[in-house]
Design goal:
The chain is of the alpha+beta class. The chain folds into 2 domains: 31 residues, no CATH class; 93 residues, Pantoate--beta-alanine Ligase, Chain: A,domain 2, CATH 3.30.1300. The protein contains 3 helices and 4 strands, in the order αααββββ. Strands 1-2-3-4 form a 4-stranded antiparallel β-sheet, covered by helices on one side. β1 and β2 form a beta hairpin. α1 packs across α2. The longest helix has 51 residues. The chain is rod-shaped, with a radius of gyration of 43 Å. The chain starts with 8 loop residues before the first helix and ends in a 10-residue tail after the last strand.
Length: 167
C-alpha cells in the first residue's frame, strides 16, 4: 500500500480556497473584515489626533523661532542706528577740534543740542613734541539701562598763541 503524504494546515487552506464554496466563504469573510481593517490601520483619509498634535507642536516651535529672530533683528537694527548716529556726532566733535573750537585749554565735555541723550568728551594728552597733542574723543549714550560709547583717537597741533574760534 502506498504511503500517503500527511496533510498540513496550509495544504487544507489551499484546497479550501480553490473550491467554489471556499471562494465564496473567503469573499464573505473579507467583506466582514474589510471595515475593521481600515479602522485599525487609521487610513480613512483624515489625520489622527496624535498626528494633529505633533504637527501643531512642530509648527509652534518653528513660529516661535522665527518670531525670536525678528525681535533680535529689530534690537540689532536699533543698536546699529545708535552707533551710526554716534559716529556722525563724533565726526562733528572732531571737526570742531580740527577747526580749533575745542582746545586743551577749554572745558572739554558736553551734550549735543539736537540729541540730548548723547554726550561727548575730549581729552588732550601732551606728546614729546611741543604743542602736539593726542586727542581722544568719546561719544557716550545710555539705552535700556546700559551705557554705550564710541571712541576715536587722533593727533592735533594746538598753537597756544592762536585766537580761539567761536562756532
Amino acid at each position: 500500500m502506498p504511503r500517503k503524504r500527511p496533510i498540513s494546515w496550509p495544504m487544507i487552506l489551499e484546497l479550501f480556497r480553490r473550491s467554489s464554496a471556499g471562494k465564496r466563504a473567503v469573499k464573505r469573510h473579507m467583506r466582514k473584515v474589510e471595515p475593521c481593517k481600515w479602522i485599525f490601520r487609521g487610513r480613512s483619509g483624515s489625520f489622527t489626533l496624535v498626528e494633529a498634535i505633533v504637527a501643531m507642536s512642530i509648527m509652534a516651535i518653528g513660529v516661535t523661532g522665527i518670531l525670536g529672530s525678528f525681535t533680535s533683528a529689530l534690537v540689532g537694527a536699533a543698536v546699529a542706528e545708535d552707533y551710526a548716529k554716534a559716529s556722525l556726532l563724533l565726526q562733528q566733535v572732531l571737526t570742531q577740534v580740527r577747526a580749533g573750537a575745542i582746545t586743551p585749554y577749554d572745558v572739554n565735555q558736553g551734550t549735543f543740542s539736537g540729541e540730548a541723550r548723547f554726550a561727548w568728551s575730549v581729552s588732550f594728552t601732551e606728546s614729546d613734541i611741543d604743542y602736539l597733542y593726542r586727542v581722544d574723543v568719546i561719544v557716550a549714550w545710555r539705552k535700556a539701562g546700559r551705557t554705550h560709547n564710541l571712541k576715536s583717537t587722533t593727533y592735533q597741533y594746538c598753537n597756544p598763541f592762536a585766537l580761539p574760534v567761536v562756532m
